[in-house]
What we know:
Structural class: mainly beta
Oligomer: single chain
Helix content: 10-25%
Number of strands: 28
Strand content: over 45%
Number of helices: 6
Amino acid sequence: MRRAALVAGLILFACLGARAVELLPSIRSRLPERAIVRPPDVPDDDALQSSGAVIGSVRFVRVNVFDPKIVEEDIPLFRFVNRLHILTRESALEKQLLFRVGDRYDANVLRETERRLRSNGYLADAQIGPVAYADGKVELEVLTQDTWTLRPNVQFGRSGGKNTSGGGIEEQNFLGTGARLALTYEQNVDRETRTLEYSDLNLNADHWQLDAEVADNSDGYRQQLRVERPFYALDARWAGGVSMRNEARVDSVYDLGQIVEQYHTREREATAYAGWSKGLHAGWATRWTGGVTFDERIASDAAGAAPAQVLPKDRHLVYPWVGIEATEDDFREARNLDQIGRVEDLALGWEAKLRLGLATHATGSDRDALVFDGSAYKGFQVTGTQTWLVSASANGRVEHGDFADAIFSALARYYWRETVRHTLYLALGADHGVNLDVDKQLTLGGDNGLRGYPLRYRTGQNRWLFTAEQRWFTDWYPFRLFAVGAAVFYDMGGVSGGNLVPAPPPPPSQQTPKTLRDVGVGLRLGNMRSALGNVVHIDIAHPLDGDPSISKVQVIIEAKRSF
Length: 563
């Protein structure tokens, strides 16, 4: 209880003190970071493009984790950290550029390359701009700043009343090449896992990628391999790759946060595909893909557990498929939406995908089925301070004229940036399942948005969740290591459709309403120097509904990619 009171005090201070921090420039004082300055004699982008200017040369400026040109960062400790860190190699950055010397100057390609570089966790920021112009040739500067990427992996997290812990070592920029190498151990509510992972998203200048993973679990194993050349840019003309997964594990079915059944699952999956596109035309990129997928699942009773009342039906599908994607080139740079102090690349254009496959007995499947997978996304900036992001998705199968194991989802997110440091966030999401398999039940609890309740507290075939969050973004930058934010939130959601696994009805004192609500406060620590998790969450939530056995104070500590 003392620990909870201490954390609550810190969060209260952060929430109430956000305004006070604005009045303390001596505390939040921050010198301007590095930036590319366009010389006065370099024409603007429109003039360069209309004149037919070409890229004459590219130079790289790589800034270490701490920038010695900033007075506050030119101290012995930070210089020692820089010496330990291996700076990202120029060759690793050059592989990701979407332009080459001799190409026509195109500002949109420069902005897309910035977005691509910023998507790497090992880079805190990336800027590209012209720094000289003569005789129709432009000299470009690529300015990047590294993050600290080596992590002795000692982790602890808590959500839904359950702890996770782990250890190991992880390097997200192995020898400065941009590759990720990790040897980790994790213990969570489901299993203990020992994992060896290697990933290189830039194998060569032709944009091939490699992902490999081997995991030894307390309840089985997992082996995964993916070799792929994706549509790496809007103007990319072709793609292709193969992926394979082989996994065995024990799955659990939950009700009211408790395991009501367990069974053993064996899954194998493999896909090979190729894709083609005409590239970017009139602000749109349309892509066609085709491939073959093998998908097998076998379920059986778990060793040491009671025989399962309901086992998922076995599945053996082999099917060819075709797909189409359409992406609109409409991106904006933003700050203080889902990150603290970082540049956020906000997609506002349409993104739509559809993939259809046909499984038949003739192709080796155990049934005739139409396999579908589709999604759509669009962003809207109603005003300069209000943004809507809406998305929808659907996946599953059609068998005997009816949907099988299908989920239809929709999500709307709203951001009202009231001031530079205050943002109101609202989100409403819903999922509708049709004839779901036992292993695909929808859950709602502390691990997926209903922060005041145990994890997987409610289970069913339909789910909805509403979140309202007032966010504070301060300019406080303690030790130049992390940015500080805070939040007050309200969650409300529900699940319907029942559990496919029969469970004894709870006593009247533990029966729960259909709609569950919680309120809470949180502290946010924006990770400015490390590649491993962008925002640390420390939340305290109080359930407003639920049965009396639920703790009235839920503490959630975890690292997430966003606010």
